[in-house]
Structure formats: C-alpha cells, structure tokens
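Example is below:
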Amino acid sequence: MTGLALLETGLLLGVFVLLAGCYGVLYGVGRLVGRRAATAGAFACYALQCAVASAVVARAPLADFWKAFIAASTLAYLAIPPITWRFLEKTH
C-alpha cells in the first residue's frame, strides 16, 4: 500500500464511521422529538455511508476479508438504531 492509498483509505474509513455516528444520533433525535426531518436526515447519512462503503470496497487496497467486513458492517449499521430504540422503549 502506498502512502497516498493509506491516506485515502484512512480518510474514507473515518468518514464511514462518522456517517454511522450521524445516522445513529439523527435517528435517535428524530424518534425522540418526533421530527421526520431528523429521521430523513438519518437515512440520508446512511445512504452516504453506503456510498462511502462502496468506494472503500471498490478502491481501497484492502484484503478481501476486510472489504467483506466493511460490507457486512454497512448492513448491520442499518439495523442497530431501530433495535436499540425498541429496546429502550421496552425497558423504560
């Protein structure tokens, strides 16, 4: 891996994680205050995260295992906020 490829991959993965966090926070805020705009923003962040994941899988010089891990993580991130929200509703 070249230095430039390392920086590009690191930047893409950082944005990937940032978008995952934004998705979770906006989803929680949207459900808490009942704002559809926040929930729509959450799903927009998830769509951007999918685009970044696609770029990582297509461009990053990572081993196939790590590319599959990124793809699987992207699918898992879709389910985490709704599952967590349902759990909080049941326990509170």
Remarks:
- The chain has one domain: 16-91.
- Residues 3-33 form the longest helix (31 residues).
- Helices lie at 3-33, 36-59, 64-91.
